[in-house]
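ugh ok fine here u go
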Amino acid sequence: MTQRVFFFLLTLFSLLGAKEYDTIVMNIEAKLFPKIAILEENIAHNPSPYLNIIIVYKEPDYDAARNFKQKIESTYPDKIGKKKVIVSLTKFESLQIANMDALLVLSHELNELEMIALWANKNKIVTFTYEPAFLEYGFIASIYIGKTTKPYLNSQTIKKYNFVFDSYLLQLSKFKE
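structure:
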């Protein structure tokens, strides 16, 4: 009986730690994030035949991370532009620079969000976040969904770390100042 109560409480706490992810928003972001990444100058001019996107998750959000990965891969089964899209999953503690063009960051503690964004920006890695509110921690892009759907960019981070995006993307985007 004690084991069942313990298991129930453990399951309940892990479910409470997980964030709810809207399927429609995930579908939109899975389509747009790779397109935004490919419009960044360093990625566009990189001779690598791959666009490596890493999804950073915490354990309660593993299923959401796996779902994001599947959505991106099914949207881009071949190539986007001249690059094959490769999507990997990792936890914050395991982040490494090798073979990384962009990060998609799911829900984390606020101090972890700041550390992830700072680390990525210093290493010239384009960052995306599911939550537009997380842009204030230094992430580069999210998706604004209102009357229209458009990229939501953090202009301060882009300027501070010298990211250069195609002018077409900048014209279409909404900016967090």
